[in-house]
Specification:
The protein is mainly beta and 202 residues long. 7% of the residues lie in helices and 57% in strands. The radius of gyration is 19 Å and the shape is globular. The termini are far apart. The mean pLDDT is 92.
């Protein structure tokens, strides 16, 4: 990776507009593989990892593998959706239950309401593997939550290609004074790698 320019401040309107365009356009560009990895830390030690690999063929048509590692224990689950409301679930990829209406499970991506104290936005032009991309960064500091004296932070680093599509998003979350990362969430989109057609399990 080589940098073509230094990062420069941008507006919240530019950040939000670019982000929302990338969300709608990227997630409509079937087929693609979407990978989410969530790492949770306690006092600098990795204690929990959750990975979801989602092969999205079309709207409502996808194949998902979820892996959760906690300590020495690892659990794997599978989901196949062939249409909206036709979801199959499996713990081993061989024996299936369904179809059912709802998702089998999902990655831990819910956010609670927090009171922001300060927000910063920047954008940087870069070249990655010879292709021009833009790196958008949002850095938010939150006031201490109830029962805590420490402020919290959330950093979002989004890599967007020349079409306006996401390449990746990295979120770093934690507390300040001293700065300590408690969660890292990585999202990546792969538009090039082929995968087998998604069909209903037998």
């Amino acid at each position: 990776m080589s940098s073509a320019a230094q990062s420069k401040p941008t507006t919240v309107a530019d950040y939000n507009g670019t982000f929302q365009y990338a969300v709608s356009e990227t997630n409509a560009a079937f087929p693609f593989t979407f990978t989410v990895t969530i790492e949770t830390f306690n006092k600098g030690r990795l204690v929990f990892t959750e990975t979801e690999i989602d092969e999205r063929q079309a709207q409502g048509v996808e194949r998902i593998k979820r892996t959760i590692k906690k300590g020495r224990a690892t659990t794997v689950s599978h989901q196949t959706s062939v249409d909206f409301g036709k979801v199959y679930c499996s713990s081993n990829g061989v024996t299936w239950k369904g179809p059912q209406e709802f998702e089998c499970s999902g990655p831990s991506m819910l956010y609670g309401q927090k009171d922001p104290e300060k927000s910063e936005y920047s954008v940087e032009d870069k070249a990655v593997n010879g292709e021009a991309v833009k790196i958008y960064r949002e850095y938010v500091i939150y006031k201490p939550t109830k029962g805590s004296r420490k402020k919290e932070f959330k950093e979002t680093i989004a890599t967007i290609d020349s079409r306006g599509f996401f390449v990746s998003i990295v979120n770093n979350e934690g507390t300040l004074d001293p700065k300590t990362v408690t969660l890292v969430r990585k999202q990546a989109w792969d538009m090039k790698t082929k995968f087998k057609p998604v069909v209903a399990p037998k």
